Structure formats: structure tokens, C-alpha cells
Amino acid sequence: MHTSYSDGKGSVMDMVRVAQERGLKEIAITDHSFGKITKGLRKRYWQELKADIIKAREIMPVLLGVEANLATTNGQIDIHDDLRSDLDIVLFGVHVMVTFSFRAMVTFCLPNLFFRVLGWTPKSQIRRNTRIVKRVLENNHIDIYTHPSRYFKVDVLEVASICKERGILIELNSKKISFRPVDFERMSQMGCSFIIGSDAHSPRNVGDFTRVQEFLKNCDYDKSCIINLNKTFTEYKNEQLSGGNQNRNTEFAKPIKRRSFWNRWF
Ligand SMILES: [Zn+2]
Known about the structure:
Helices cover about 40% and strands about 10% of the residues. By secondary structure, the protein is α/β, with parallel strands linked by helices. The protein contains nine helices and six strands, in the order H-E-H-E-E-H-H-E-H-E-H-E-H-H-H. The protein binds zinc ion (ZN). Zinc ion (ZN) binds near residues 95, 146 and 147.
């Protein structure tokens, strides 16, 4: 969920109080990361956010995370290297108003915006988007890939195979699911794991999973593929760690060495 540290409408404590009232066992505060031009996290408020999370943990389990953005076509994301060790959970999703590198702006953002307005994306662009998103998922520690194909189209099944390989959970987003029930069924047959996210941007949406429930009514799937139907993210993570599953993505991959234009800016 998001708070007023990015584009949300409530404080950490506002969100936590509602989550507790509604009986949630664990929540993750995952504000939009630093590269978001409008209403993204700002480094100068990071310590304040951390202090809010620590205080909120007196009430219930709260994970500190971010929803990272694409920064470059090499697969870099917009999290400051020195803050990575603070994070309990890392989400990655493609968003629009982001400080992309020049190359990403020209080959990714602008053409996709154009095709979005047109309402049709050519296969060559979908292939390029898929390649770029796969690079992010391969090169970084990511726990959850959020709202696949929402803003810019990707080949969801191809991206899903990387998610499976790397132990990355695919989000079933309660605001909008941009793939078809049949794609979800195929991904679950492939052995992918999913997590339902409220994507709450205000206290009233905390724990609201109505849209996902509606979507799942039309799907034939094995319930065990959705991890937070019967356990928390932390319980799932601990299971993965104790299972010693080598394929699972349990540590931070080293950030890509090459410094981009973007890194020098922020
Ligand atoms: Zn998002």
C-alpha cells in the first residue's frame, strides 16, 4: 500500500489502524520509489518513514518496502544502493511519470505512451518491453512484480517464466488486472506463485480485494498458488529460506555496476 510519502492519501499510522481493524495479519508499506517525478519517495524523508514504520510495528507487523520503477533499459531500478539494506520487501512495476534514462525514454516510455493513446501496441514494441522487464527481474532482487502489462504491454507468459525461475511473486492487483483469466490459469499451471495486493492509496481501500475475488470467480486454478490466501508474506519467505530452495530469490542481487545518467541525477 501507498501513503502520503508518495501518492497515497493517509499516513503510515492511518493505514495501519484500518488494517488492524479489518483483521489483516501483516501489511507492507510500499510507496512509489525515488524516480517517480510526481509524488515519489524523496530521500530526505526516508529516515522519517523508517521511524513511522518502527512506531507502527507496536500495533501490528508492518514491512518496509518500495515499489520500484524502471530506470534504464539495462534493467536498473530507481532504488538508492545505500537504502537497499533497509528494505523488507521490494516490488517492481512499470509506471509512466518516471525519470527514465535518455535511452529508456526514447525506446520505451515515449513509444509506449504513443501506442497507449492509439489503443494498439505492435508486437515489436511488446517484445522490446518484455525484454526490458525481464532484464529488471533477472538483475535485481525483486519480491513482487506488480500489475503486469497495466501501463505498457508485455508478453505476460514470457515474463511469468522468469518470475517462476527467480521466485518472484506476481501481483493480482485489486485496482486492475491487465491479463486475462486464461493467462492467469496458464501461469498457475506453469508453477508461478501469486500474491493479492490491495494497492491501497487511502485507508478506505486497505484490505479491499473485491476486484480480485471477482476475477478469480472466472478462473480454474489451484488455490495454493496464491500465497497470501492462507499465510503472510513473511511466513512464505521464511518457508522459502528454510526449504533452501536455490532457485528462490532470497538475497539482494548486486546492483548493476555501470553508473547511468540516472544514478548521477539522484
Ligand atoms: Zn504500481
